[in-house]
Amino acid sequence: NKKVIASAPGKVTLFGEHAVVYGYPALVVSIDKRIYAIAEKRNDDVIKINARDLRVPGIVISYIGNEVVLETDYGLILPAIAYINKAIEVTSKYIGTKAGVNIEIRSEMPVGAGLGTSAAVAVSTIAAYAYVNEYELKKEEIANLGWQVEKEVQGIASPMDTSITAIGGFLKIKYIDKTVERTPIEVKEEIPLLIGYVERESRTKDMVAMVRKKIESYPEIYMKIMELIGNTVEKAESALLNNNLHELGSFMNLNHSLLDALGVSTRRLNELVYVARDAGAYGSKLTGAGGGGCVIALTPENQDVIETAMKLHGTLTFRTKLGTDGVKIE
Ligand code: MEV
Predict the structure, then answer these.
(1) Partners of residue 193 on adjacent β-strands
(2) Tens digit of each residue's pLDDT (9 = 90 or more) over 98-114
(3) Rounded CA separation 99/327 (Å)
(4) Burial of 320 (0-12, 13-18, 19+ CB in 10 A)
């Protein structure tokens, strides 16, 4: 039987995390690290999954029986299998087939670091399963099905990760309840970025809940911070469109300070952000929910020096190109 390979990229949030939960826009971008789903149609209705490639550097790597267990963005410890299984279930209902399939998942990224791997797993599986059954779904359809998978597996999920991994490029995302606005941003020049990863101390779910509590206690202060993050996102979008990297960097610094003011940064993240800036980054910030996870540094110059400085600081680093293709059949 013929094999189909679908792939979907990881992502970083450039601007606007946390404020996006309160209806402000965020800027997210795909990275050049992908998840691959290899599907082969079977002659029966059995679903066979092989996902041994889903690992985490240093932390959260565990197995239940033969299943790899991953820590999702929302912090629940769930078998990676759950995303793949649910993706097949949801797609099979959508396209109206119950055909069996062998699915193998490969990853070029650390899992559970906040790079959107679970969304990329869901989205690449959806595309591969549909295609092997002779359905070519639209990217928006895949994004919505992927969001459904994340919601059903995690209980709660933001549409950011599934949107960016399905559509790719640079996206401005805004969501209120069930409505998602996804606006592509045309970025012409290359934006060189370094990603540094430190162990996560807290889960996304807990960080989001902590912020909510602060907003409930002191709305007059914390909603102002959200509004300022929202304003920063709008200015950052212009800097991005004008390819003004110095300005973009200083908005990254501003966004980081506002996230720190919300209380979602950590000593390790702050240190790393300053190490990158001291070594020559145009700007740097934590990305994602905070409480550990990833830092991004804008590095059009001195990338080697900055990378070495971050490594000396005990960080796993990688370089990435931004704005890669969304989900596709290889
Ligand atoms: C986490 O990657 C992003 C947050 O804004 C949460 C969300 O959007 O649901 C912190």
Answers:
(1) 298, 320
(2) 888 888 888 898 777 88
(3) 22
(4) buried
Question: Rounded distance, CA 163 to CA 100, Å?
Answer: 27
Mean pLDDT of 10-26: 97
Q: Are residue 32 and residue 180 in the same domain, yes or no?
A: yes
**Where are the alpha helices (H) located in 29-138, listed in sequence order?**
80-95, 117-132
CATH number where 220 lies: 3.30.70.890
Give every CB contact of residue 170 below 8 A, 6+ residues apart in sequence: 14, 27, 28, 29, 184, 185, 186, 187, 240, 322, 323
Question: Does the C-beta of 288 come closer than 6 Å to ligand 1?
Answer: yes
Ligand 1 atom index nearest CA of 18? 5
Say yes or no: 7 and 153 in one domain: yes
Verify whether ligand 1 is closer than 6 Å to residue 161 (CB atom). Answer: no
Q: Which of 9-13, 61-65, 265-269, 313-317 has the lowest mean pLDDT?
A: 61-65
pLDDT band at 78 (very low <50, low <70, confident <90, very high): low
Spatial strand order of the sheet with 67-71 comes to 62-64, 67-71, 77-79
Give the domain CATH number at 99: 3.30.230.10
Domain that holds residue 48: 3-185+323-329
Provide φ and ψ at 176, rounded to 5°.
-130, 120
Q: What are phi and psi of 35, to 5 degrees?
A: -105, 135
Cβ neighbours, 10 Å, residue 48: 11
Among 12, 15, 18, 165, residue to substitute to test ligand 1 (most atoms within 8 Å of Cβ): 18
Q: What domain count does the chain have?
A: 2
State which ligand 1 atom lies nearest to the alpha carbon of 289. Answer: 10
Q: 49: CA distance to ligand 1 center in Å?
A: 29
